[in-house]
Amino acid sequence: MALPTIDPYPLPAADDLPANRALWTIDPVRAFLLVHDMQSYFLSPYRADAQPLAGVRAHIRALRDACHRAGVPVVYTVKPGGMTQSQRGLELDFWGPGMTAAERHTAIDPHLVPGADDVLLTNRALPRRRLQRRAPRVRPGLRHDALDECSAHVRPGRGGLTAPGRGWGKVRAYRLDSSLS
After folding, report:
1. What are phi and psi of 119, to 5 degrees?
2. What is the pLDDT of residues 26-82, one digit of tens each?
3. Per-residue b/e over 128-161, b at no fewer than 16 CB within 10 Å?
4. What phi, psi does 113 have (nearest 5°)?
5. Model-level pTM?
6. Which of 15, 37, 49, 145 is catalytic?
7. Angle at 43 between CA 150 and CA 156, to 5 degrees
8. Max mean pLDDT range (83-92, 97-106, 124-133)
9. CB 112 within 8 A of CB 61
10. Is 15 noted as a catalytic residue in this protein?
11. Is 115 exposed, middle or buried (0-12, 13-18, 19+ CB in 10 A)?
């Protein structure tokens, strides 16, 4: 079963979003950025040259670059292709067998390729709390308990990119840029 096509739509502007109620800033020593499943298969429902994908890519790159400048680790997770029915779990019920092991499915978006110092983890339905337990692999000896996420997934019942975090790229990237500078 292929992922459904999603028509282009504009990213919300900063004025379209509610004000941030959190009064904290990112602590670069405790944080890491998770770029989650930004693979060709998951991005295929979106037109590559249109919004929201074009803007989300730019926002993720800006956020990633800000993290690199501030010494915040960047962690990429990728799903392997060709997972078994038991490995797919509930995803099988919603989305079918998923991607194959072919490069055309599993490749990380060429606009978001990890850097030499970034960490690449294979994601087999990895819950966030398990990812945080793996955090010492990101920067041994330090506690990473602040996580911001860049992800592209069509969710059951609603479509859309979530990049980064629960907010949209422009606002979240700006907030992190300003707190990391």
Report:
1. -100, 135
2. 778 878 888 988 999 999 999 999 999 999 899 899 989 999 998 888 989 898 999
3. eeebbeebeebbeeeebebbbbbbbbbeeeebeb
4. -60, 135
5. 0.72
6. 37
7. 80
8. 97-106
9. yes
10. no
11. exposed
